[in-house]
Amino acid sequence: MLPAANYYGYVDHNSTELVPSGKRYFEKLLQLINEARHTVHLQCYIFSDDATGQMVADALMEAARKKVKVWLMADGYASQKLNTVFINNLESAGVQFRFFNPLFKSAWFYFGRRLHHKIAVADGSVALVGGINISDNYNDTAAKKAWLDFALLVKGPVVKDICVVCSKTWNDFKPMGKSLNCDSYVQNNTPGSSLVKLCRNDWVRRKNDISKTYIEMLLHATAQVTILSSYFLPGKNIRRQMLQAAKRGVRVKVIAAGRSDVLVSKHAERWLYDWLLRNNIELYEYKSNILHGKLAVCDDQLLTLGSYNINNISAYATIECNLNVKDVPFIQTVHTQLEQIIANDCEKITSEQLVKSRNVFIRFTRWISYQFVRLLIYLFTFYFKHKP
Description:
Elements: E1 11-20, H1 23-35, E2 39-44, H2 51-65, E3 69-75, H3 84-92, E4 96-100, E5 103-105, E6 110-112, E7 114-115, E8 118-122, E9 126-130, E10 150-155, H4 158-170, E11 194-202, E12 207-208, H5 209-220, E13 224-229, H6 236-247, E14 251-259, H7 263-271, H8 273-278, E15 282-290, E16 294-298, E17 302-306, H9 312-316, E18 318-326, H10 328-345, E19 346-348, H11 351-356, H12 360-381
Parallel strand pairs: 2-3, 3-4, 7-18, 13-14, 14-15
Antiparallel strand pairs: 1-10, 1-11, 2-8, 5-6, 8-9, 9-10, 11-12, 11-18, 13-16, 15-19, 16-17, 17-18
Helix pairs in contact: 1-2, 5-6, 7-12
């Protein structure tokens, strides 16, 4: 069981709500923007100028016209296709827009890192934190359903911490004065019972809270750990803890993508399937759509959810944001939803299935994909690795 006294960094009296991608998420996001009276921060990896992006942009521009201070930051690599007219319209309406500077500079090299977190905050009192980008892929449209992903809607004292992170990111992490535009202007009249902790991964700034969370979950679990993860390529430390947890009799379940928007990544993941099954880790592939979510629950005592993928890019090369939650009734509800996803939308992967698919071509494709992705990740993260 997770140490009960380990409450460092947690903030009490918050309300939490699990919000899936699709229509429900964007309704919550638009409500957050529309009801803001003073400030809105929106930061994301992908902001597209498709129908969903235009819908969110319209809401941001309307808020700015009402004299709400609006800051919009998108990753300079993933959102580079945003056209000049789209950006000019935002700025003309009063939205402060900028790309996250993808370059990291030191005395020895100049290299890129990416802003991968997805955060929206209004008035320092309500926030959405998760893995959902601003794009039609994450929304329900007439043509298709949204990719599966999740966010947490939080209200309460922890939102100020989230807002401070947005302000610091906007200002390139430079030393700032006391005024961060994160005071809670709107009184939260319905405080909840959730303990919530803001966790970040930014290896350049020596932040690895989320990586530690996954390792501690597996290290202290006594009954079960369920992980839902896109682009699931765990590094040596997490694999070691998964193995040790399974040996202790912990029921470790992994919900991986059955369909992926990055085919080579999916082939690479399947190269690990033998290892997972050989070590008594239950494995399920989500089949209903593309899986993009990133969350885990442990012993119904701890939940982590956000933008962090279980691979070395998230661990070393991108800026990530998760929320950890300690609230047993809430986590039990989330756990139940994960079990429903397994029952209704997943296929259980067995050793027998792998044996049937073990022709030379498939095995070689998966092996070469795994080696290629490992090399890609190594090259992408090489400059950022340093001794803890």
